[in-house]
């Protein structure tokens, strides 16, 4: 059968109605209560003119309303659009316009004011749904543009039952990337492919895939009542994939407004956490610092596993976690917005990341021909089976990232390089692009370079990753200054970039050189730049 995400959630909710589905800031909602909350939200969305196929941007931090918004949208076959709330106004404008969002759900006053200033530049937005009190600037801007304002709290007065709707495995879910290869791109998933790939066919911890909704519901009923804390914000792909995975299992999802290691370590005891999902060393390092500080003070007995995805998770941080609790199961997931969960890395004695053999992962050369196991040839790691439809509104990048071979098989090739051993194990060698992964946030070097080049004193600049103990990598810039220009300070360069880029994209290290080296063809010499850093 073809699976739909809303049908999956409703089937699980009917199977385990009294089990706690969501814990947030001291509030506990059962599956029945969360499904009802999502139903009321769905009715509010429908009454606000939102229907099947409409794109709705969720400009939100973690909250119950955020979860209800995601579920409410898929109930009515609308398409949630994840929004990085750390983006600058120009970056937000790009997301709203590129995604063709017809509505935005927003909460924080500062986010409302930012949205108010963008409404003129985003003509497709016709509805804004506000959680909490509406800011005066947003109200004025909405009235000037004839944009409909809706109070999210009005959902409380609506019934939880929704009008009958025929859902499909072809319904869309769009997940915006972190901008690994340029501006963020909207990855278009069919619900059925989303189920089979990111959600591992309904059976992430076992063999075989679930055949139908009845089997998913029965498995959820048999799944032990475990508490999974998602430390990452729901705007990130890793968090969204985990949210749907744990709901599909009938588990309890624990969310927090913001990442706070002290609160998380306390919650291990108070919420009897089973698993914590983090994003690399950016979360892992402060978390293990707090675990070490409070070792012996907090009961860690319930904690079975810590899982990371989306960023570098160093062996040193993992070893420290095991020193605190030796029986922890540590899992380093490999995946992307474009592929979902590809499995878990293991680390060999030389520190190499290794992926066990999988029928859905192969190594190909530049002609897309599969590289035979045991070859010394370095190639591109390619995923096959349940590949996304492509990038929303970008046929060229879709063709490059999701090519179709001569035999009709579609691939997902993101630029990850590797080699394949004789037993089919793939050794991960790194990303072949200029992507910088800083604490799970993806930064594209050319975007930062463009901002640097806009400074009147900067003659040339290259941007590369630099090792960072906490974040895995930090953004570093190597730049030259025009001879006649006053030399800017590092602080001045950072302040200039801050007017154009999100905070995590600002260069933390700036190296001044007489001349930025380029190849004879004028291409960037990133290898040289890294030596300067």
From TrEMBL:
Domain AMP-binding enzyme C-terminal: 447-523
Stretches that traverse the bilayer: 226-249
Record-level Gene Ontology MF annotations: acid-thiol ligase activity
Entry keyword annotation includes Cell inner membrane: no
AMP-dependent synthetase/ligase domain ranges (all copies): 9-374
Annotated keywords: Membrane, Transmembrane, Transmembrane helix
PANTHER family associated with the record: LONG-CHAIN-FATTY-ACID--COA LIGASE, NONRIBOSOMAL PEPTIDE SYNTHASE PES1 (EUROFUNG)-RELATED
Name of protein: AMP-binding protein
Taxonomic source organism: Tomitella fengzijianii
